[in-house]
Give the backbone structure.
Amino acid sequence: MLKGRVFEFKEAFELESGRQLPGFQLFYTTWGTLNENRDNVVWVCHAFSGNTFVKDWWGGLFGEGKTFDPAKHFIVCANTLGGCYGSTGPLSVNPETGRPYYHQFPALTNRDVVKAFQLLREHLELDTIQVLIGGSLGGQQALEWAIGESEVIKRLVLVASNAVQSPYAIALNETQRMAIEQDVTWQLNTDGAGAQGLQTARAVAMLSYRSYQSYHQGQREQNPKSLDRYKAASYQRYQGEKLAQRFNAFTYWHLTKMLDSHNVGRGRGSVEEALNQVQAQALIIGVDSDGLFPLKEQKFVARYLPNATLQVIQSEQGHDGFLLETDQLEKSITSFLEQKPQRKTWIPTVF
């Protein structure tokens, strides 16, 4: 049975920026039973707008009879710090003021999030994580964790993610934040501030989540006589409105900033040196049509991890292929988990 809980940390929490949170909470779910040896833990780091109910958005991988089966595994997924699904975020009440943080919420990095996850792991008395898996933003967090606690993570699965956020992705995120800024309500200290801008931001993001071909297949106009109200235009508005009903502009703003600051090499000499610290046996999965986290980024990670295998998902869905192509993902991950651990003894010079 899937269970939702809240982990409370009541001490000052130092952030990478030098600022502090006066404590925090993480909402998390567990699914399955921890075995006697406590070595069947699967920890999931969710994507940008995801939540802790992993079967709702990765149901092809998680569930009875799936690759990650609660009858065999103890599955943990925590809502990211800064999120809006039960963990401390911009709409949470600041205990020092008695009012929601709103614009005063401090900037967070993936390293801050992983630090909070590590405290939750200790609270749950989990000495090791057998499989740590994440996609996109969740993959960034999983990689940070595998570097920071290399002895804890035994197997690592990164899907459609990277080691450093690209200038292209940062530019896309800034464009989305500009859309939020144009909303006249954005400066207000209310839960709904920036909601209209958020809809536009999400519509912009959808163009980077999907590909030219996926729009051509799914949103092509069927009536050649149409002069307005095009299917693709309605789709953009629908996606913006749908997210705005379950998200808020403050969280969206902070999570895009979190993505932008991602650089595993910060303070570790170089990105390559940081990747080389990972001890886990790793599976790196990329989507061939991904324009947001292109395949070259997964190839780079696979090249510099000491124990990595690279798999490529064939898809016309773009970045969202990491959520949609679950049959291919299941096949790749199942094969990886069945392999005996071995150390890579060569590093290719060209991809």
In short: The longest helix spans residues 167-181. Confidence is low (pLDDT under 50) at residues 344-351. The chain has twelve helices and twelve strands. The domain at 168-260 is CATH 1.10.1740.110 (Rna Polymerase Sigma Factor; Chain: A).
